[in-house]
Fold this sequence. Notes:
There is one protein chain. By secondary structure, the chain is of the alpha+beta class. The chain has helices at residues 3-15, 24-31, 35-46, 50-68, 73-79, 85-96, 100-105, 152-168, 204-207, 236-251, and strands at 109-110, 128-133, 136-148, 177-186, 193-202, 215-219, 222-230, 254-255, 260-265, 276-282. It has ten helices and ten strands. A hairpin with a 6-residue loop joins strand 4 and strand 5 (193-202).
Amino acid sequence: xxxxxxxxxxxxxxxxxxxxxxxxxxxxxxxxxxxxxxxxxxxxxxxxxxxxxxxxxxxxxxxxxxxxxxxxxxxxxxxxxxxxxxxxxxxxxxxxxxxxxxxxxxxxxxxxxxxxxxxxxxxxxxxxxxxxxxxxxxxxxxxxxxxxxxxxxxxxxxxxxxxxxxxxxxxxxxxxxxxxxxxxxxxxxxxxxxxxxxxxxxxxxxxxxxxxxxxxxxxxxxxxxxxxxxxxxxxxxxxxxxxxxxxxxxxxxxxxxxxxxxxxxxxxxxxxxxxxxxxxxxx
Length: 283
């Protein structure tokens, strides 16, 4: 295997082990090379030092935990292998220009300081555009679930399918445009979990009285960035993680408080074509 292939496999392995001990010895053992050779190969292929990269990715993961959970800062620091809250705070402030406490309390979520996972040139930025949306009235049904941050992808895939199946079961036909509105909040009951509110919605004229237990929903007007996803529904959650973990830092965007909007078009849902989605994330 060429060096790029070896490092690509190593990068994938590292992503799944950022909350575990990663001394240079055990990383080198995983790669099957001496420490000296691995450090040189990693630097040659990526242009970065392996230790600095691991720390930057751990800090980026911890930033997500700060925003999406109420987990104590010390617990987050220990989870990502910092030996004390003081050490974690110094490293975090150096990368994000804010202490962990201020980062958590900030009204907006800046992508400054987030280090996307390395992809070795194989990443293509999804189609995106900046759009201005008018305030829109919808009718929807809101449900919620709680999960640990590490379980978020599996839960969101399952819940999205379940909620849409229940929602469309009451409709006489599939409407031409559907909206999924997503809002995560730190759980009020368990500090290591988040509560996710997901609203399945459509315009009032399309609802036409068919939706049980529905309520008015208002989409706030304003500036948004819209990322377009084309593919199977099973790949949507991974796409959303890529938008937040890679695209928004690369575009230096700041996410303001509000809902994430998933907009699906009927012609893309029915027939023989794969399910496709047009997804707008508020910025």
